């Protein structure tokens, strides 16, 4: 018998087998990034919300799984799901911007470290460089360029130059995505992606690291 908890657990298990978060699975299927969030599984008054048959069909197509394989997962069977397309894709660490500034997720050079990272497929099977990671946009502070749920692929240690889109971590623990406009021995000037947010300027001693944004999933 199908149950609300069983259906959602099967979707979570399918995402895990493809080394994706539920939001990553939704994006791969062409759905809203928040479609499978735990907060969307019940209404405000506590009523159960079920995923649509269209949503299930899209995640099966996106992962290469059949309905029979999905039902096996639903019944708790652990038969492997065939993933010829995604199996070739390497996985990289993923974390949300809100968590990134909490501390303990990066070393002093800006490379991912510590526990608490999710994993997400890198968008290409070749050309991946050591230390590359993903940051998930949360909120509207980077609109209109990046929206809530978009994933930024970041390469720490890569050279940066004027006009690059970068991720910056300050010595105060703040993590932000900006456009690098000027970097000198006296100051680092950053322009905001969202015109409603102010540009920022720091002394070099106030910045822990700067990393270049390679790519964004939108």
UniProtKB/TrEMBL annotation:
Ranges where the Peptidase S24/S26A/S26B/S26C domain occurs: 93-213
Keywords: DNA-binding, Transcription, Transcription regulation
Pfam families, A to Z: Peptidase_S24
GO MF: DNA binding
Listed InterPro entries: LexA-like (IPR039418), LexA/Signal_pep-like_sf (IPR036286), Peptidase_S24_S26A/B/C (IPR015927)
PANTHER family hit by this protein: FELS-1 PROPHAGE TRANSCRIPTIONAL REGULATOR, PTHR40661
Name of the protein described by the UniProt record: DNA-binding protein
Annotated source species: Xaviernesmea oryzae
């Amino acid at each position: 018998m199908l149950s609300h908890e069983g259906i959602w657990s099967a979707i979570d298990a399918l995402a895990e087998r493809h080394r994706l978060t539920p939001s990553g699975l939704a994006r791969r299927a062409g759905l809203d990034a928040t479609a499978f969030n735990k907060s969307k599984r019940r209404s405000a008054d506590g009523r159960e919300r079920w995923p649509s048959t269209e949503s299930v069909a899209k995640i099966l197509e996106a992962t290469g799984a059949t309905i029979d394989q999905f039902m096996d997962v639903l019944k708790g069977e652990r038969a492997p799901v065939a993933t010829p397309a995604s199996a070739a894709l390497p996985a990289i660490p993923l974390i949300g911007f809100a968590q990134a500034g909490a501390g303990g997720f990066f070393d002093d050079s800006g490379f991912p470290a510590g526990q608490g990272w999710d994993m997400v497929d890198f968008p290409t099977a070749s050309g991946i460089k050591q230390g590359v990671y993903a940051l998930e946009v949360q909120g509207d502070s980077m609109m209109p360029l990046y929206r809530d749920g978009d994933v930024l692929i970041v390469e720490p240690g890569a050279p940066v130059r004027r006009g690059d889109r970068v991720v910056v971590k300050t010595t105060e623990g703040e993590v932000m995505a900006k456009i690098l406009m000027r970097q000198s021995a006296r100051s680092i000037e950053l322009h905001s992606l969202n015109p409603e947010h102010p540009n920022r300027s720091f002394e070099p001693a106030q910045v822990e690291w700067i990393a270049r944004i390679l790519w964004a999933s939108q």
